[in-house]
């Protein structure tokens, strides 16, 4: 109910702002909705949303897999941490735009370059989070697993992963929010489709209704995914933790 009221308040505020500023700069909701429906009827809206979501899924999966493995290794092995830490600091502070531009220069304006650039920008946040999780692992549980001669697979599944679960959830949440932003920049600079590409076209044509139509459609998809997938996933991973009294 509160979310519905919040949405209604957003629409009302937007409509009032449109009346005050003028529809030339801020189109009213019906105008944007009309542009959105036009794109949906032509199929362009769903095609571009699908392209963007595919890039997000691939880049996010790649970055989480590599980031989790690297972060765990850095948190458990001091030598790996000392070798990898300078590179981690570099990636954390390197602007996303630089990574995207270099990827396009080195690999061309290809899908591989776009996905790699997005993944590289998300990678260091996953590494940092999982490194802290690996450092926080309880050594007493390691000793118990050794004493009971746990097989490696059982050790990871029943001892290590449950302890890392909150860190994995945190890395996924923060990383996904970052990927949502970076994918649009990558599409704007070097892809022939996607929400970012369409926003760039709308900017060049100064077509504000089209720009808002794609922006709000993308925001709606992000909100649905966060509500139906990310939040339940985070809750499930953290269900074993003791609740505060």
From TrEMBL:
Where, per UniProt, does this protein localize? Cell membrane
Annotated GO biological processes are: transmembrane transport
Main localization category: membrane
Which keywords annotate this record?
Answer: Cell membrane, Membrane, Transmembrane, Transmembrane helix, Transport
Entry keyword annotation includes Magnesium:
no
Span-the-membrane segments of this chain are 46-75, 87-106, 211-233
- Key word Transport present: yes
Q: What is this protein called?
A: ABC transporter permease
Q: What is the lineage of its organism?
A: Bacteria, Pseudomonadati, Pseudomonadota, Alphaproteobacteria, Hyphomicrobiales
